[in-house]
TrEMBL record:
It comes from the Eukaryota. It is an enzyme of class 2 (transferase). It comes from Geospiza parvula. Gene3D superfamilies: P-loop containing nucleotide triphosphate hydrolases. Belongs to the sulfotransferase 1 family. GO terms for molecular function: sulfotransferase activity. Transmembrane segments: none annotated. The lineage of its organism: Eukaryota, Metazoa, Chordata, Craniata, Vertebrata. The keyword Transferase applies. Signal peptide: none annotated. The keyword Nucleus does not apply. Keywords: Transferase. This is Sulfotransferase. InterPro entries: P-loop_NTPase, Sulfotransferase_dom. Its EC number is 2.8.2.-.
Amino acid sequence: MEKYMTKSVGLLDKAEATANSMRRDELLFSYKGILYPTTVCSPETFKALESFEVRRNDVILAGYPKSGTNWLSQILTDLIAISQKKTPGSESSVNAEEEEEPYLEIGDAEKYERMTKLPSPRLMVTHLRPENLPKSIFQNKAKMLLLIRNPKDVATSYYHFSNGLALLPSYETWDDFFTDFMTKKMAWGCYLEYLSEWNKYADKENIMTITYEEVKENPALSVKNIATFFGIPLTEEQLQLVVERSSFQSMKKNSDKTHGSFGNIFFRKGGVSDWKNLFNEDQSKRMDKAFEEHIAGTKLGKKLKYDLYCKA
Ligand SMILES: Nc1ncnc2c1ncn2[C@@H]1O[C@H](COP(=O)(O)OS(=O)(=O)O)[C@@H](OP(=O)(O)O)[C@H]1O
């Protein structure tokens, strides 16, 4: 059997090879009204996920695609290592035997059985909407970090990602992508609906919401707050180490180890406001209107500071 540096890279490599021989209209399938990539998700896995038992001390990161989940996942991995008295990034902090694809809904249906053998705390990442997560997450009150990002940058990042990977439908023009983004044709569903659904959970005490923009603005304070939420004490030195290792430059530099040949696709620009290079005035107004209608007045809507990050 081939050996990959991480399970995720192996899975992605295979998915890309399969996707290369598929027609564009075969790349996504619909499950309970939401589209997902055929090469990495399946109805069997979704079915098996329903009865997965989440433990109270599992660490869960939820975020729509392109909201910075790889970034926050790196921060959480290091914080978990620290909580286990290991040095982040050291050989002893990684146990390849115990590794499982961290994205909950990605992989084969047997993964949940394998995960029952993993020690606590298990880190899980998901792009799913809350109603499609296993009920045990909410019943067992596992702590969850909900990551959100301004919708214009999410769309921009998603556009480049769709054209960078074979497993997602690619687009000849940004205009075509924008139309699909606004009409619910994205893998993992419509982002504004995602925000609206998660907003129903935003007041729960076991959920902490954080924005991509606030982590970018003040990474040290963000890491500190995340550690406090998960009950992980940190020395100043450990805090600096986590911040340093999770900077865009460090992660991009290290990406040949973590993401193989996909590094440049997952770590593209890592900034705020790149949307200004793609959106025309009309598209910008259309997003403003949709945001105003569906999200602006909600708790998550306010947290996104839309006027600051999405208006010229
Ligand atoms: N360390 C760090 N700092 C700042 N920004 C970062 C970092 N790591 C990843 N990124 C940016 O996050 C975007 C990808 O989001 P995801 O990781 O959620 O993508 S994925 O859906 O899991 O593929 C994508 O955003 P864009 O650069 O705007 O495309 C990544 O570059």
